[in-house]
Amino acid sequence: MKRVLWVTGILIAVCVAALKSTPGAIENRYNRVRVPPPYTIPDETANLQKNLFVADLHADSLDWGRNLLKRSSRGHIDLPRLQEANVSLQFFTVFTNIPRHLKIEKNSGSSDLIRYLAIAEGWPPRTWNSPLQRALYQASRLQGFQSGSNGKLTILRTRRDLQALLSSRQSYRLATLLGAEGAEPLEGKLEHLDALFAAGYRLMSPTHFTDTDIGGSSSGEGKGGLTELGREWVRAMEAKGILIDLAHASPATVIDVTSMATKPLIVSHSGVRGTCDNNRNLSDDELRAIARTGGVIGIGYWETATCGRDADSVARAILYTADKVGFEHVALGSDFDGATVMPFDATGIPLITEALLRRGVSERNIQLVMGKNVLRVLSQTLPQ
User: Fold this and answer.
1) Which of 86, 123, 203, 333 could form a disulfide with 269 if both were Cys (CB 3.0 to 4.6 A apart)?
2) What is the CATH number of domain 31-381?
């Protein structure tokens, strides 16, 4: 009997150790970089980078269980690496559902891989079957990072917070904005917006890789537009001061949202079909529709977004977008830590600045793309 208990204990310990190592093993496989740091840039670029307000509209870092206050050899982002690139504002967006056998063309919403990630990372049992609870749990983790940062990390909730950030840039501080990648945390009920808002969420997209109760995904089965609930959702989002993010939305959903929006919209991370033609990326008409709302398009860095593997490919997509809608509507939207292979980690962001300078982009327009456009949108959309 003692031998059986002893063997059982060893098996349990091995299983627990395997589960704890799973997130790190998965991240090391998927959140890779093609060229590891350090990266070399000319002195002119380095000096410009130090004086830029840099904002990135999308990173999935919260879902991977790392301590983002400490430099890590895993993933793409943490506070020290963001500071090295002079990033002042980082959107952290939480995904709460991922389908099995993920494809950018078509996915069913009948499976849920995040349940297994939640168990492996030791999330509370209430999160195992509830996208809402997953979102609330990740919000609490970000709040924990804020509490443990000694003032180096702060969560933006209001326009007053934004003003405080801009007036205190003498010493480095990272502002974060919390978002939900897909409307799954609503679980079909708009009243859940209240809990998410109270937890700090200030951004949500209608869809991720599957269609939702709100609307169609560019990778969903139906690829339809807004549902009736989705139209109510647009009005509720604007009333509360939560940004609407059209990344992953189907063309029909983009049309529906842009036609009824009264505030600027964003696309947190995408490419453009003009430089990389696939259904995940935005058409010229979609770019113009988003720009007409006063919004911004965050250009991603990964290969599906740019059809390239370096900073030059990112710069090419930025310039194409600017040619169609103006530099005033372009931003950075990396998709760092999004189970993507990147050209570089966060410390390589100055390589994009260098690529834009080499193409003759003015310092004013670089300032717009690197962060000033995002500041403008937040000043118009965050709650008072």
Assistant:
1) 333
2) 3.20.20.140
pLDDT at 30: 86
Task: Extract the tokens encoding 50.
Answer: 């130090």
Closest CA to 322 of 351, 280, 364: 364
> Residue 11's pLDDT is what?
32
* Spans of all domains in the chain: 31-381
CA atoms within 13 A on the CB side of 35: 12
DSSP string, 52-120: --EEES-B-GGGG---TTS--SSSS--HHHHHHTTEEEEEEEEE----SS--SS---SS--THHHHHHH
Task: Give the C-alpha distances (Å, rounded to integers) separating 180 from 41, 86, 230, 374.
Answer: 34, 25, 15, 18
How far, in Å, CA of 60 to CA of 63, rounded? 6
The ranges of the chain with pLDDT < 50 are 1-19
Number of other residues whose CB lies within 10 A of the CB of residue 324:
19
Distance, CA of 7 to CA of 5 (rounded, Å): 6
Phi and psi of 77, rounded to 5°?
Answer: -135, 140
